[in-house]
Amino acid sequence: MHVFVTGATGWIGTAVVDELLGAGHEVTGLARTEAAALTLAKKGARVRRGDLDDLAGLRDGALDAQAVVHLANKHDWANPAENNRTERAAVETMAGALAGTDRPFLLAGALAGLVKDRPAVEADVSPAVGPGSMRGGSENLALEYVDKGVRVLSVRFAPSVHGAGDPGFLASITAAAREHGVSAYPGDGTTTWAAVHRPDAARLVRLGLEHAPAGSRLHAVAEEAVTTREIAEAVGHALDVPVVSIEPGRAAEHFGFVGRFFTTGMAASSTATRELLGWQPSGPTLVEDIEGGAYA
User: Fold this and answer.
1) CB under 8 Å to 82, separation ≥6 — which residues?
2) CB of 45 within 8 A of CB of 8?
3) For residues 128 and 135, is the Cβ–Cβ distance under 8 A?
4) Which of 162, 216, 224, 248 has the lowest CB atom count within 10 Å?
C-alpha cells in the first residue's frame, strides 16, 4: 500500500514509518519543517510539506494514498480548545476524502478517561463526544465514517510508549526526579498505567492497517498495569536517588503538566487485539527500559 502518515517524524510516527517501509509499503510523510522532510527522504519515504492546519494538503495527501495513518497532534496543553478544534478538522478532512473508497483510515486514540476502577478493553466506547471533548471526540467522529465507506481503525496507545529517546510522560517524570533529587509517586503508588515498547506499537499499527476490519478499536498495550510506585522505583534506581511518596494534590507542582496524568489510572487489556491480529509484543518491559538506562 501507499500510506500517507501524519506525525511521520514524531516519537511513534518515526517507528511506524520504519515498520511500514520495512514491510514493503510506500510511505508519504507529512513534514512541517525542512529537517523533518530531510529525515523522511533519507529513509526512502516521499514527503508532503504541511501541517495539521493545512486542510487542503491533508485532503490531497489522503486522496493520493491507498491508506492514511493519522498520528499527528499539536499537544498544546495550554490551549486544549485549539488542540481539539485542529484534531477534529483534520479527521473530518481526511476521513471525508476517503468516503466511499473502503480505504483504511487509522488514527491514534487514547486510553485516558475510558473507564474507572478496571482495565479498559477494546469494546469500551470512548465517552469523548463532540468538539469540546478530549481530542475533539476524534475517535467517535472517525468511526462515523465506517457507514460512509471508510475502513476506520482506532489504535489506543498506552500512556507510556517507551524506549530510548522517548520525549513523553516518562521523560518528564524522570526530569522531575533529577530536579528534585527524589523519585516520587503520588499517594500509595497503586495507580496503574498500561505500557508498550515503541517497536511493538509500530508493528501493531502495520498489522491493523493490513488486516483489521472496519470499526476496530485496537489497544497498543503490552503490559496491562504498571503501578506508579514501580515506575518511581525504577527511575530512582536508574538515577540513584531516593524514592518517596507525595500527596496526590502536590503532583502538578512536583511533576508539572504530567502530574495530572500520573494520578490517573490508565490500565488496559489488549487480549482482543492480540487475538484479532496475532500480535505478540516482544520488547522489554517499561521497568526494564527505565532501569536499562533508556531515560538516564
Assistant:
1) 74, 76
2) yes
3) yes
4) 248
Portions of the chain given CATH number 3.40.50.720: 2-157+198-220
Q: Where in the chain are all domains bearing CATH 3.90.25?
A: 160-195+224-291
Q: What is the pTM of this model?
A: 0.95
Q: Identify the DSSP state of 119.
A: -
Q: Within 10 Å of residue 181's Cβ, how many Cβ atoms? A: 10
What would be the CATH architecture of the domain defined by 160-195+224-291? Answer: Alpha-Beta Complex (3.90)
- Residues 6 or more apart whose CB falls under 8 angstroms from that of 22 comprise none
- Which grid coordinates are listed for 7? 506525525
CATH of domain 2-157+198-220: 3.40.50.720
Using CA atoms, how far residue 220 sits from 72, 139, 281, in Å, is 17, 15, 9
Tell me the per-residue pLDDT of 6-35, one tens digit each, with 9 for 90 and over: 999 999 999 999 999 999 999 999 999 999
Give the tens place of pLDDT for each residue, 128-141.
Answer: 888 777 787 899 99
Please report where in the chains the cell 485542529 appears, as a residue: 86
- Please count the other Cβ atoms lying within 10 Å of the Cβ belonging to residue 190: 13
